[in-house]
Amino acid sequence: MSRWKRFRYVLEAAACRWLVWLVPRLPRAECVKLGILLGDLAYFFDRRGRAVALANLECVFGDQYSLAQRRWIARLSYRNFARTMLDLFWAKPLVRGNYENYMRQEGFGEIRDQLAREKRGTVFLCVHQGNWEWASLTSGFQDFFNVVVTENFKNPRLTKIFSQAREISGQTMIPQENSLLRMLKVVKRGGATGMLIDLNLRPSQAATVIEGFGLKMCVPLVHAVLAQRAHALLVPVETEPHDDGSCRVTAHPGLVFPPDASVQQIAQQCWDYFEPIVRRRPDLWLWPYKHFRYRPKDATRPYPFYAHESAKFEKLQRSVAKEGGS
Asked: Is residue 220 part of a domain?
């Protein structure tokens, strides 16, 4: 690692620790306003991310939205991301006695009753929509005590800071590497796990290929394996941040799959549940993220500029098709 990169990592960690100290001390309304300000600044200064967001929106929606509308959606997406990150730090003082003032949960009681009847484990599913960090914290406050899979930051100091913030409600963070075996053990014991299912993975990782908005996506398959091998209940969790600083967190009914469904088919059905949610409120999805990194050789519709062909991706697609996937 170069001297400059080491120095940059130290600066990033120092700035993040300062936010961890400052943000919980802000009144709730001021935290929301700061999220708007930082989101707008990121939108204007992050040229690469803004280009990715606009390219994603154009490929997904085409002429459904004008250029001005796509720019506004991208800007709101930046605001939502900034608020989500600030809210993670702001939640540090929250406890079981007051978190409900801000995290207005729905459906978790019904899920708990179902799990008690059926004696099975569960996987709470999220995408980069709304306030996914609070969705995860809510599951912890609801005493599910999830084991949650997260991506490591390139800067290891940031990984530690964010993991500590994400564990305040009783959860345990684990990296993607070798996560499947650990999660299988948790689910088979009747425990709970959680993960983001729209992460972009390399074809060589624990990934499968699904179709989102008519475009191919290379996403995790762990949740599908847990449903197939451990009979885990897969529960989609949706969030909707409100202007008053609160957030509705909804645990939807567990998904039901055909008994002979393949891993890819399960993963596809999970995404199919979330896609209408994203279409309904596109401003709440993380458009600056490279969701469509791999472009099939036989693609008949445009892909974002950053997408590229990959021999490993083509091999994975053939494997998925052979096993009965799309």
From this structure: yes
